[in-house]
Design brief:
The chain has 445 residues and is of the alpha/beta class. Among the domains are: 29-100, Beta Barrel (OB fold (Dihydrolipoamide Acetyltransferase, E2P)), CATH 2.40.50.100; 123-280, Rossmann fold (3-Layer(aba) Sandwich); 373-444, no CATH class. Helices cover 29% and strands 19% of the residues. It has a 6-stranded mixed beta sheet with strand order 1-14-13-17-15-16. A 4-stranded antiparallel beta sheet has the order 2-8-7-4, with no helix packed on it.
Length: 445
């Protein structure tokens, strides 16, 4: 019997239209806009100025604190300006604008083909190279990877847990990456194991990807301590706590980190980026992005440079469909609607979903019938309707006590609600307000 997590969950239609589409190399943009805050934590600090000439892989912004990440140029050319741009969330964020000229790479980056398996570096040296390369979690949260690999002294890691679930509908970037880069991913997994000094790793893959399961299991057989775990298809199994529950049958307590139960969780795309950083000296300057939708002429998986305009990738798929109603950064469950297509791709850009007018239209909001479906599908055991009401009324002290910060914003509640209530919207509002309250208390103390 296939494993899965124990609480809540839903089964939205998969709509994996871009599945098995080979990864296409996206055209280098004429202008790249590289944001300084592409990660959780403090935005990076610029180390270049207007007029500076950069190459692919040049450090353009350094980590600005313990929880921060370095940023590198994904193109070669001249820095046009340092200004702000609207990001995928609709907020103005500082960014470095680069006018592209050619495609010259830094000389220390190994661009030769061929797998590099051996690594004589120490755990500390591996973590340092990962930090220097600006690697962050590529599953969406964008937590600086070096921070995850250096847990608190009291915490003891037992294993690396690789998230290869890709449970979000429509997205196929991780699936295709596994089919094309299985060996490199496996070396990356071993590097992560060495970095946290463990001898076990589990790779969780949902059973709707039998080809990836078979290939990854075959490759894993040549690496000691690595086990591929097939999982039942169930959303949101890609959440850290849900994945730990499914694979290890352990529950992470409210407010606790995954390492508290012995797991350090990393996305499969992150494992590949770690391989490139440690074995090829390549910083995180590009990533695989799915561009898809029911009306898209050619749903595709692109290897795109960070800072590429979203419009450029849409054009490469045949252009914007006439019936477009909304463009989502990410997937339909957890993604956010873009305000325009000039938004640049970032380290956390897993997909661009073009929804048609019918899909994009929200159903008419009705009165709650107290059916409790939202509570039944919540994978965190919360009461989404209560949290929504409290946030809507501005009672954020009660919102905090009802554990709004445990919400993983998966959208299962809103997807299930027969009254079409904007439950996720208000839960996100509640989390933002309560998060600000918590930070304010910490500052005062």
């Amino acid at each position: 019997m296939l494993k899965t997590f124990s609480m809540g969950g839903i089964h939205p239609r998969e709509n994996k239209y871009s599945a098995h589409q080979p990864i296409r190399i996206a055209t280098v943009p004429a202008k790249a806009v590289i944001m300084l805050g592409q990660h959780i934590g403090a935005p990076a600090k610029p180390v270049v100025a207007k007029g500076d000439v950069v190459k692919v892989g040049t450090l353009i912004a350094e980590a600005n604190g313990f929880v921060s990440a370095a940023v590198h140029s994904s193109v070669s050319g001249k820095v046009a300006k340092i200004d702000s741009i609207i990001d995928a969330g609709g907020y103005a964020k500082p960014a470095i604008f680069i006018d592209v000229d050619g495609d010259e790479w830094e000389g220390h980056i190994d661009r030769t083909p061929g797998l590099v398996k051996e690594c004589t570096l120490s755990a500390e040296e591996i973590v340092r190279k990962i930090a220097d390369a600006g690697i962050v979690g590529l599953g969406g949260a964008c937590f600086p990877t070096q921070v995850k690999l250096t847990p608190p002294p009291a915490a003891k890691a037992e294993c690396i847990l690789i998230n290869a679930v890709e449970c979000e509908p429509y997205l196929t970037a991780d699936h295709q990456l596994m089919l094309e880069r299985a060996e490199e991913i496996m070396v990356g997994v071993n590097l992560l194991m060495k970095a946290v000094k463990v001898n076990k790793a589990f790779i969780g893959i949902e059973n709707n990807k039998p080809d990836a399961i078979a290939l990854m299991a075959k490759v894993a057989s040549g690496y000691a301590g690595v086990t591929v775990v097939p999982l039942k298809v169930r959303y949101p199994q890609g959440g850290e706590k849900q994945l730990i529950d499914a694979v290890m049958s352990r529950q992470v307590a409210s407010g606790a980190l995954p390492v508290s139960v012995g797991a350090v969780v990393q996305n499969v795309g992150t494992a590949y980026a770690v391989y490139e950083a440690v074995q090829k000296n390549k910083p995180l300057v590009e990533r695989v992005i799915t561009v898809t939708g029911k009306s898209v002429k050619q749903p595709s998986n692109f290897l795109a440079r960070i800072g590429t305009p979203v419009q450029q990738l849409i054009d490469a798929c045949g252009g914007l469909p006439e019936d477009t109603g909304k463009i989502i950064s990410g997937g339909p469950m957890m993604g956010k609607a873009l305000v325009n297509t000039d938004v640049p791709t970032a380290k956390g850009s897993s997909g661009i979903l073009i929804m048609n007018t019918k899909e994009a239209k929200r159903g008419e909001r009705k009165s709650c019938i107290r059916c409790a479906k939202c509570a039944g599908v919540c994978p965190m055991g919360l009461e989404p309707y209560l949290l929504s009401v409290l946030a809507e009324k501005g009672d954020f002290e009660r919102t905090e006590s009802e554990r709004v910060m445990d919400c993983i914003e998966c959208g299962s509640c809103q997807f299930t609600c027969p009254a079409r209530l904007p439950l996720l919207d208000y839960c996100r509002l509640g989390k933002a307000k309560v998060g600000a309250m918590i930070r304010s208390r910490q500052t005062k103390n």
